[in-house]
Design a protein that fits this description.
Layout: H1 24-32, H2 47-57, E1 69-74, H3 77-87, H4 92-95, E2 98-105, H5 114-132, E3 136-140, H6 146-153, E4 159-168, H7 184-187, H8 231-241, H9 259-265, E5 276-280, H10 286-294, E6 300-305, H11 308-320, E7 328-332, E8 345-351, H12 360-370, E9 371-382, H13 387-394, H14 412-422, E10 424-431, E11 441-442, E12 452-458
Parallel strand pairs: 5-6, 5-8, 6-7, 8-9
Antiparallel strand pairs: 1-2, 2-4, 3-4, 9-12, 10-11, 10-12
Helix pairs in contact: 2-5
Bound molecules: flavin mononucleotide (FMN).
């Protein structure tokens, strides 16, 4: 390894001149092109280089200069695979060249999380070093069972494993996109706090929000009821936080996929080339690609979504899945207003999204308006009057609002009433009688007690 500035006598450190470093703009522009990679090619990186990257990170400042950090570099393939298994879904852990486990010693500089801030600074410095050297990275707080990791790595109990930095070479086919940044004006202010309402999310009224009273799995201030959010807030939330995921083919398929999706999609009417189908508020694209596969190639699929950022994510997902975009139309919507003419759409698909809307009845009115006479609404909702509804009330809704946005299961009999007011209900299906996952289907009045209530409705 080459000698570095900090190995040399103090006198040889270059003075801070007050003048910009030559090429500073280019350096910053290059740093700004860094983006997370979740699709590595499985190759290895020379240990000297990995050590240099980690060492670059140790140039970061640390609280009280205590440098209570420790970085465990894992480049052993079997251990990487084990780390992947422990993480429970980070497939990039098995394919990166190395994982740098970010640890710190507990007991010093805990105030304001100084020790955590210090390790974070070092990690980002490593990312920039790796980026400038032509490698790709991803920082992961989601690493799975820390006890299992501590055992694998022999980390003593007084050290905390805070996260892991995966470094490697991106596969040539890795998604070529960077997650969008909020408009700068939204995230800064001068000499005081100011921020647009749409980017401050609703929370329960309280005199204070003590940090340690809020956990991911137990958040007393979270508001899951979307009718207390504005459409702009819901769009903002979905547009940015969805980027925690990657538009890679086949990954991050949600639990609602699989057998339940099959049951939902089986309600689609026959549609031939030239027909127009609208999917309402698609989330990360996992459902949209299934829908696309199900439709005839010449059917126009409109993706009616609240957030531009989310749409570009979904479009990349289509590319990654090898699906043509020829008959896919990403359409931005404003609230419950659909950008389609009266009686111009053959089918609307609304898979478990009515319960994510600030004003579900206004959206059903819009669906009624845009459907052609005889056109179909294929809809499913998570049912409050079911075992799942109980689980949601007792457990799920106590946690923080999930990345796809706030939602509250709706009573199937209420939804049936809303549908009957506007449409002819042609077919009803109940999906799943157990709290979760189960996707057995039933029909008739029993459908009102299942986890999901699904229906095909026709415009009269
Ligand atoms: C502290 C921290 C923790 C993160 N944890 C995860 C993670 O567990 N899983 C993941 O896929 N991405 C994770 N990320 C990556 C972010 O999703 C990513 O940085 C963000 O979407 C912005 O994208 P960009 O890095 O391409 O600019 C994490 C990032 C940070 C800074």
């Amino acid at each position: 390894m080459r000698e570095r500035a900090s190995d040399q006598p103090q006198s040889s450190l270059s003075a801070v001149t007050g003048q910009p470093v030559r090429g500073w703009r280019e350096i910053l522009d290059t740093l700004a092109t860094r983006r997370s990679c979740r699709d590595f090619d499985g190759s290895s990186i020379d240990r000297d280089i990995l050590a240099e990257i980690v060492r670059d990170g140790t140039e970061a400042p640390s609280s009280c200069n205590q440098q209570q950090w420790h970085f465990i570099i894992v480049d052993d393939r079997d251990m990487l695979r084990r780390a992947h298994d422990i993480s429970g879904g980070n497939h990039h852990f098995a394919e990166c060249s190395a994982l740098i486990f970010l640890c710190f010693q507990k007991g010093w500089t805990h105030g304001n999380f100084s020790v955590v801030q210090s390790v974070a600074g070092a990690c980002y410095h490593m990312m920039l070093s790796a980026h400038l050297r032509g490698f790709s990275c991803i920082w992961n707080a989601g690493i799975g069972d820390k006890d299992a990791l501590a055992e694998m790595l022999g980390v003593p109990a007084i050290f905390e494993i805070q996260g892991a930095l995966a470094i490697g070479r991106a596969r040539p086919t890795a998604p070529d996109m960077k997650a969008p940044r909020r408009p700068f004006a939204q995230v800064h202010s001068w000499n005081g706090f100011s921020r647009p309402d749409s980017s401050v999310y609703p929370v329960a009224d309280a005199p204070a929000y003590p940090y340690f009273a809020i956990r991911n799995d137990e958040n007393p201030f979270a508001i899951w009821d979307p009718t207390r959010w504005s459409w702009e807030q819901v769009g903002d939330f979905r547009g940015y936080s969805v980027w925690a995921k990657s538009p890679l083919a086949g990954v991050y398929v949600s639990r609602r996929q699989g057998a339940a999706t099959e049951a939902e999609l089986s309600l689609l009417p026959d549609l031939s080339d030239g027909a127009r189908v609208v999917e309402l508020m698609p989330w990360g694209g996992t459902y949209s690609v299934e829908l696309r596969r199900r439709l005839a190639p010449g059917v126009e699929l409109h993706l009616a979504e609240l957030s531009e950022a989310n749409l570009s994510f979904i479009v990349e997902r289509f590319r990654q899945e090898g699906l043509s975009l020829d008959h896919v139309r990403p359409d931005l919507i404003e609230g419950a207003q659909l950008p389609y003419q009266d009686a111009s759409v053959d089918a609307v698909v609304s898979p478990q999204v009515l319960e994510q809307m600030p004003d579900p009845e206004a959206m059903l009115d819009e669906v009624q308006r845009v459907l052609k006479p005889g056109g179909s609404l294929v809809i499913s909702v998570r049912n409050l009057d079911s075992a799942y509804g109980g689980l949601w009330q007792k457990v799920e809704s106590k946690a923080q609002v999930p990345n796809q946005g706030p939602f509250t299961p709706l009573s199937a009999s209420h939804v049936r009433g809303w549908l009957a007011d506007r449409f002819h209900i042609d077919t009803e299906t109940g999906i799943g009688q157990e709290e979760s996952r189960d996707a057995t289907t039933v029909s008739g009045s029993e459908s009102l007690t299942c986890r999901l209530y699904a229906a095909r409705c026709l415009k009269r």
